[in-house]
Write a structure and sequence with these properties.
With about 270 residues, this protein is mostly helical. The chain is about 55% helix and about 0% strand. The two termini are about 40 Å apart.
Amino acid sequence: MDARTLAAIAACARTLADGGDAEALVERAGTTTVGPLRAYADRVALTRRYVDPAIEACYRPAEPRAALLYDALGAARVDALGVLWLRGVASNLLAHPGRDEDGVRWLAFEQFSHHAAPPEKAALVARARRAMTSALVDELRAFASVLRDQSEFFVAAAAWCIRASGEAPLPVAHVAERGFAIPNRPGGVDVRRGRYMAPGRDSKTHANNSAGESEGGAGSSTAPADLNASHDGYRVYTTASDRVTNAVALTGRDDLARLRMALDAEFG
């Protein structure tokens, strides 16, 4: 992503957020194309504009399952406010809904905004609807009238999540696939040198043994056994099998945040 595009999107996010810290947040998006970056920036801006973290935290349920649902409703509220506010923001949000298994979030979005969820979320929404009683689903419609009042919304959301925690499917964060494959049997030659040679050998011993072997095998009977020879070609202390990749290629910031939230919920 070039700096000029990033700066322009950050400026739009700052304007929508009515705050001055959008640039730093947008720069941490981890996206590589403009569309997802715009959606990410819009969500950052909407969250800054419409969510007071202190109020949100004040009403979060202590029960882990209810807390996960509570955060899903909070995300649905942010998207609903954006879709109801500006057409361009609506286009960005609906075009890039993310890859999490978050049927409750998008079911709530439909009830809050009276807009259909993105097509790729339709199956998840239907699954969430089937999992819950019609009464719980119907209760979500009443949230539309309190979207702009944080205190009223989060009070109602906490109560709903506690009632629904035994029925509603929990959100599951998408984990990006690795961009490379680690072979079962690392290949390549043994490139160890000096003190990194096979355990029990020093460079002089290794040199003498190599010379003896080249002259007909003499000295081979006195060579220490290679302790790693039985490990199907693997050798320690070598970079031959190393793989280096950027963390962004493995997962996105949204995924990391949701995974941390799920971990906290498990051990909370």
